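Allow me, if you will, to draw on your knowledge of protein folds for a short while. I have a record of one protein: its chain in single-letter code and its fold written as C-alpha coordinates. The full record is reproduced below for your convenience:
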Amino acid sequence: MRALLVYLSGRLEGDGVKVLSSLTLLLILTSSGIGEVWKHIDSDHFRVYFTGSRSVARRAIEEGEEFLREVAERFGMPFKGRIEVWICSNEDQFRRAVKAPIQDWAAGCAFPLQRRVLIRDPGFTENRNLKFLVVLRHEIAHVIIGERVGGRLSEIPFWFNEGMAMLLSGEGMFFRRDLILMGRAVWGSIIPLRNLEAGFPDEADLADLAYAESLSAVSMIVRDYGRESLRAILDLVRLGESFTNAMTLTTGMTPYSFDERWRSYVERHYKMSLLLSSSSFLWMLISAAFLIVYLNYRRMRRERLERMAAEEEKEDEFFE
Protein backbone atom coordinates (compact mmCIF):
# COMPACT_ATOMS: atom_id res chain seq x y z
CA MET A 1 0.00 0.00 0.00
CA ARG A 2 1.32 3.42 -0.89
CA ALA A 3 2.00 5.99 1.78
CA LEU A 4 -1.31 7.72 2.37
CA LEU A 5 -0.77 10.19 5.17
CA VAL A 6 0.52 13.72 5.43
CA TYR A 7 0.37 16.65 7.78
CA LEU A 8 0.73 20.37 7.15
CA SER A 9 2.71 21.82 10.02
CA GLY A 10 3.58 25.30 11.13
CA ARG A 11 6.56 24.91 8.81
CA LEU A 12 4.20 24.98 5.83
CA GLU A 13 1.82 27.45 7.38
CA GLY A 14 4.70 29.89 7.53
CA ASP A 15 5.69 29.36 3.91
CA GLY A 16 2.82 30.98 2.11
CA VAL A 17 0.07 28.53 3.00
CA LYS A 18 -2.91 30.48 4.26
CA VAL A 19 -4.58 28.81 7.22
CA LEU A 20 -8.32 29.36 7.09
CA SER A 21 -10.75 29.86 9.93
CA SER A 22 -13.57 27.35 10.24
CA LEU A 23 -16.12 29.87 8.97
CA THR A 24 -13.96 30.84 5.98
CA LEU A 25 -13.37 27.21 5.13
CA LEU A 26 -17.09 26.52 5.31
CA LEU A 27 -17.85 29.46 3.00
CA ILE A 28 -15.26 28.30 0.47
CA LEU A 29 -16.59 24.76 0.45
CA THR A 30 -20.24 25.78 0.12
CA SER A 31 -19.78 28.61 -2.40
CA SER A 32 -18.54 26.38 -5.22
CA GLY A 33 -20.35 23.19 -4.31
CA ILE A 34 -23.76 22.99 -5.96
CA GLY A 35 -26.26 21.29 -3.69
CA GLU A 36 -23.71 20.70 -0.93
CA VAL A 37 -25.08 21.10 2.57
CA TRP A 38 -22.48 20.79 5.31
CA LYS A 39 -23.73 19.36 8.58
CA HIS A 40 -21.85 18.62 11.77
CA ILE A 41 -22.10 16.49 14.89
CA ASP A 42 -20.27 17.10 18.17
CA SER A 43 -18.72 15.17 21.04
CA ASP A 44 -16.56 16.20 23.98
CA HIS A 45 -13.40 16.54 21.88
CA PHE A 46 -14.61 16.59 18.26
CA ARG A 47 -16.75 18.47 15.80
CA VAL A 48 -17.13 16.46 12.60
CA TYR A 49 -18.27 18.23 9.41
CA PHE A 50 -19.69 16.15 6.57
CA THR A 51 -21.93 16.25 3.49
CA GLY A 52 -22.20 12.52 3.00
CA SER A 53 -23.09 9.67 5.31
CA ARG A 54 -23.95 10.52 8.90
CA SER A 55 -22.90 7.02 9.92
CA VAL A 56 -19.35 7.72 8.71
CA ALA A 57 -19.30 10.91 10.79
CA ARG A 58 -20.54 9.03 13.85
CA ARG A 59 -17.89 6.39 13.33
CA ALA A 60 -15.25 9.14 13.16
CA ILE A 61 -16.52 10.62 16.45
CA GLU A 62 -16.50 7.27 18.23
CA GLU A 63 -13.07 6.28 16.94
CA GLY A 64 -11.63 9.71 17.71
CA GLU A 65 -12.79 9.69 21.33
CA GLU A 66 -11.55 6.13 21.83
CA PHE A 67 -8.19 7.05 20.31
CA LEU A 68 -7.74 10.05 22.62
CA ARG A 69 -8.41 7.83 25.64
CA GLU A 70 -5.94 5.27 24.34
CA VAL A 71 -3.15 7.82 23.84
CA ALA A 72 -3.75 9.28 27.29
CA GLU A 73 -3.51 5.85 28.92
CA ARG A 74 -0.62 4.38 26.92
CA PHE A 75 1.56 7.46 26.42
CA GLY A 76 0.49 9.80 29.22
CA MET A 77 -0.61 12.49 26.76
CA PRO A 78 -4.16 13.62 27.58
CA PHE A 79 -5.77 16.02 25.12
CA LYS A 80 -7.84 19.05 26.06
CA GLY A 81 -9.96 21.07 23.69
CA ARG A 82 -11.77 20.18 20.48
CA ILE A 83 -10.58 18.91 17.11
CA GLU A 84 -12.35 19.68 13.84
CA VAL A 85 -12.67 16.80 11.39
CA TRP A 86 -13.80 17.59 7.85
CA ILE A 87 -14.87 14.53 5.85
CA CYS A 88 -14.68 15.45 2.17
CA SER A 89 -17.06 13.41 0.04
CA ASN A 90 -15.33 14.07 -3.29
CA GLU A 91 -11.96 15.07 -4.73
CA ASP A 92 -12.99 18.67 -5.39
CA GLN A 93 -14.02 19.21 -1.78
CA PHE A 94 -10.74 17.80 -0.55
CA ARG A 95 -8.60 19.98 -2.82
CA ARG A 96 -10.51 23.16 -1.96
CA ALA A 97 -10.36 22.40 1.75
CA VAL A 98 -6.62 21.72 1.85
CA LYS A 99 -5.66 24.92 -0.01
CA ALA A 100 -2.03 23.77 -0.17
CA PRO A 101 0.21 21.57 -2.31
CA ILE A 102 -0.47 17.94 -1.47
CA GLN A 103 0.48 14.65 -3.08
CA ASP A 104 -2.15 12.89 -5.18
CA TRP A 105 -1.83 9.75 -3.05
CA ALA A 106 -2.52 11.53 0.26
CA ALA A 107 -5.79 10.42 1.85
CA GLY A 108 -5.80 12.95 4.64
CA CYS A 109 -3.93 15.84 6.18
CA ALA A 110 -3.80 17.73 9.44
CA PHE A 111 -3.29 21.34 10.45
CA PRO A 112 -2.06 20.66 14.01
CA LEU A 113 -1.87 24.28 15.09
CA GLN A 114 -5.50 24.78 14.02
CA ARG A 115 -6.61 21.47 15.54
CA ARG A 116 -8.07 20.54 12.17
CA VAL A 117 -8.11 17.28 10.23
CA LEU A 118 -9.18 16.92 6.60
CA ILE A 119 -9.86 13.44 5.34
CA ARG A 120 -11.24 11.84 2.21
CA ASP A 121 -14.51 9.98 2.59
CA PRO A 122 -13.79 6.24 2.30
CA GLY A 123 -16.41 6.04 -0.43
CA PHE A 124 -14.30 7.82 -3.06
CA THR A 125 -10.76 6.74 -2.18
CA GLU A 126 -9.09 5.02 -5.10
CA ASN A 127 -6.97 2.69 -2.97
CA ARG A 128 -9.37 -0.03 -1.88
CA ASN A 129 -7.03 -1.19 0.87
CA LEU A 130 -7.10 2.17 2.58
CA LYS A 131 -8.68 2.03 6.02
CA PHE A 132 -10.55 5.20 6.90
CA LEU A 133 -10.04 4.82 10.63
CA VAL A 134 -6.28 4.25 10.31
CA VAL A 135 -5.91 7.53 8.42
CA LEU A 136 -8.19 9.32 10.88
CA ARG A 137 -6.16 8.15 13.88
CA HIS A 138 -2.91 9.12 12.18
CA GLU A 139 -4.05 12.66 11.45
CA ILE A 140 -5.49 13.09 14.95
CA ALA A 141 -2.09 11.96 16.26
CA HIS A 142 -0.48 14.89 14.44
CA VAL A 143 -2.89 17.25 16.21
CA ILE A 144 -1.99 15.68 19.57
CA ILE A 145 1.72 16.17 18.85
CA GLY A 146 1.10 19.76 17.77
CA GLU A 147 -0.87 20.45 20.93
CA ARG A 148 1.98 19.05 23.03
CA VAL A 149 4.67 21.32 21.57
CA GLY A 150 2.48 24.37 21.01
CA GLY A 151 3.81 26.95 18.60
CA ARG A 152 7.18 25.19 18.29
CA LEU A 153 5.98 22.40 16.02
CA SER A 154 8.40 23.46 13.28
CA GLU A 155 11.27 22.44 15.60
CA ILE A 156 10.25 18.78 15.30
CA PRO A 157 11.90 16.92 12.40
CA PHE A 158 9.49 15.48 9.87
CA TRP A 159 10.69 11.92 10.44
CA PHE A 160 10.09 12.15 14.19
CA ASN A 161 6.65 13.70 13.75
CA GLU A 162 5.53 11.11 11.21
CA GLY A 163 7.08 8.18 13.06
CA MET A 164 5.48 9.22 16.33
CA ALA A 165 2.09 9.72 14.65
CA MET A 166 2.33 6.22 13.21
CA LEU A 167 3.31 4.78 16.59
CA LEU A 168 0.53 6.61 18.47
CA SER A 169 -2.07 5.54 15.93
CA GLY A 170 -1.07 1.89 16.21
CA GLU A 171 0.29 1.43 12.71
CA GLY A 172 2.77 -1.40 12.63
CA MET A 173 5.75 -2.54 10.57
CA PHE A 174 3.54 -4.73 8.42
CA PHE A 175 4.95 -7.09 5.79
CA ARG A 176 5.31 -4.56 2.97
CA ARG A 177 7.17 -2.04 5.13
CA ASP A 178 9.49 -4.80 6.29
CA LEU A 179 10.20 -5.74 2.68
CA ILE A 180 10.90 -2.11 1.75
CA LEU A 181 13.41 -1.69 4.58
CA MET A 182 14.97 -5.09 3.97
CA GLY A 183 15.59 -4.32 0.30
CA ARG A 184 17.16 -0.96 1.09
CA ALA A 185 19.23 -2.36 3.96
CA VAL A 186 20.69 -5.14 1.81
CA TRP A 187 21.78 -2.66 -0.86
CA GLY A 188 22.92 -0.04 1.66
CA SER A 189 20.52 2.61 0.37
CA ILE A 190 18.66 3.61 3.52
CA ILE A 191 17.82 7.33 3.52
CA PRO A 192 19.64 9.04 6.43
CA LEU A 193 17.22 10.55 8.92
CA ARG A 194 18.96 13.91 8.56
CA ASN A 195 17.65 13.96 4.97
CA LEU A 196 14.10 13.54 6.26
CA GLU A 197 14.07 16.46 8.67
CA ALA A 198 12.34 19.03 6.44
CA GLY A 199 9.99 16.71 4.55
CA PHE A 200 9.54 13.49 2.61
CA PRO A 201 10.20 12.76 -1.07
CA ASP A 202 7.33 13.42 -3.47
CA GLU A 203 7.76 10.08 -5.25
CA ALA A 204 5.37 7.51 -3.78
CA ASP A 205 7.98 4.72 -3.55
CA LEU A 206 10.49 6.91 -1.72
CA ALA A 207 7.71 8.27 0.48
CA ASP A 208 6.84 4.67 1.40
CA LEU A 209 10.45 4.17 2.45
CA ALA A 210 10.49 7.42 4.44
CA TYR A 211 7.38 6.42 6.40
CA ALA A 212 8.80 2.95 7.10
CA GLU A 213 12.10 4.44 8.26
CA SER A 214 10.35 6.96 10.50
CA LEU A 215 8.29 4.31 12.26
CA SER A 216 11.35 2.08 12.65
CA ALA A 217 13.43 4.92 14.13
CA VAL A 218 10.79 6.10 16.62
CA SER A 219 10.06 2.49 17.60
CA MET A 220 13.76 2.09 18.40
CA ILE A 221 13.65 5.16 20.67
CA VAL A 222 10.71 3.65 22.55
CA ARG A 223 12.39 0.24 22.74
CA ASP A 224 15.61 1.66 24.19
CA TYR A 225 14.32 4.58 26.29
CA GLY A 226 10.63 3.88 26.93
CA ARG A 227 7.41 5.56 25.82
CA GLU A 228 7.97 8.38 28.26
CA SER A 229 11.00 9.49 26.23
CA LEU A 230 8.74 10.69 23.41
CA ARG A 231 6.70 12.81 25.79
CA ALA A 232 9.87 14.15 27.41
CA ILE A 233 11.32 15.25 24.06
CA LEU A 234 8.11 17.08 23.10
CA ASP A 235 7.86 18.77 26.50
CA LEU A 236 11.45 20.02 26.32
CA VAL A 237 10.83 21.45 22.87
CA ARG A 238 7.72 23.20 24.15
CA LEU A 239 9.82 24.73 26.94
CA GLY A 240 12.21 26.23 24.39
CA GLU A 241 14.87 23.58 23.77
CA SER A 242 15.88 22.71 20.24
CA PHE A 243 15.04 19.19 19.11
CA THR A 244 18.75 18.36 19.16
CA ASN A 245 19.07 19.41 22.80
CA ALA A 246 15.77 17.78 23.77
CA MET A 247 16.76 14.43 22.31
CA THR A 248 20.28 14.62 23.75
CA LEU A 249 18.98 15.44 27.24
CA THR A 250 16.41 12.64 27.06
CA THR A 251 18.42 9.83 25.46
CA GLY A 252 22.05 10.88 25.81
CA MET A 253 22.38 10.79 22.02
CA THR A 254 22.24 13.59 19.47
CA PRO A 255 19.88 13.06 16.52
CA TYR A 256 22.93 12.54 14.29
CA SER A 257 24.57 9.89 16.48
CA PHE A 258 21.18 8.19 16.83
CA ASP A 259 20.81 8.30 13.04
CA GLU A 260 24.08 6.41 12.58
CA ARG A 261 23.24 3.89 15.29
CA TRP A 262 19.75 3.29 13.90
CA ARG A 263 20.99 2.78 10.32
CA SER A 264 23.66 0.36 11.54
CA TYR A 265 21.03 -1.60 13.46
CA VAL A 266 18.62 -1.70 10.50
CA GLU A 267 21.28 -2.97 8.12
CA ARG A 268 22.44 -5.69 10.53
CA HIS A 269 18.91 -6.72 11.44
CA TYR A 270 17.56 -7.07 7.93
CA LYS A 271 20.68 -8.65 6.48
CA MET A 272 20.52 -11.29 9.19
CA SER A 273 16.78 -11.75 8.59
CA LEU A 274 17.41 -12.24 4.90
CA LEU A 275 20.17 -14.73 5.62
CA LEU A 276 18.01 -16.75 7.98
CA SER A 277 15.07 -16.71 5.57
CA SER A 278 17.15 -18.05 2.70
CA SER A 279 15.92 -21.56 1.86
CA SER A 280 19.38 -22.84 0.99
CA PHE A 281 20.77 -21.53 4.26
CA LEU A 282 17.86 -23.04 6.15
CA TRP A 283 18.41 -26.47 4.60
CA MET A 284 22.11 -26.17 5.36
CA LEU A 285 21.27 -25.57 9.02
CA ILE A 286 18.88 -28.54 9.05
CA SER A 287 21.49 -30.79 7.42
CA ALA A 288 24.14 -29.63 9.89
CA ALA A 289 21.78 -30.34 12.78
CA PHE A 290 21.12 -33.88 11.53
CA LEU A 291 24.86 -34.44 11.03
CA ILE A 292 25.60 -33.31 14.59
CA VAL A 293 22.90 -35.61 15.97
CA TYR A 294 24.22 -38.54 13.91
CA LEU A 295 27.84 -37.98 14.98
CA ASN A 296 26.78 -37.73 18.62
CA TYR A 297 24.82 -40.97 18.24
CA ARG A 298 27.83 -42.77 16.75
CA ARG A 299 30.13 -41.46 19.49
CA MET A 300 27.74 -42.56 22.25
CA ARG A 301 27.27 -45.99 20.61
CA ARG A 302 31.05 -46.46 20.29
CA GLU A 303 31.61 -45.50 23.93
CA ARG A 304 28.87 -47.92 25.02
CA LEU A 305 30.44 -50.80 23.06
CA GLU A 306 33.85 -50.00 24.53
CA ARG A 307 32.42 -50.11 28.06
CA MET A 308 30.74 -53.45 27.36
CA ALA A 309 33.99 -54.91 25.99
CA ALA A 310 35.90 -53.71 29.05
CA GLU A 311 33.37 -55.31 31.39
CA GLU A 312 33.62 -58.65 29.53
CA GLU A 313 37.41 -58.61 29.88
CA LYS A 314 37.10 -58.07 33.64
CA GLU A 315 34.65 -60.97 33.97
CA ASP A 316 37.01 -63.30 32.05
CA GLU A 317 39.90 -62.42 34.35
CA PHE A 318 37.74 -63.15 37.42
CA PHE A 319 36.81 -66.70 36.33
CA GLU A 320 40.37 -67.59 35.42
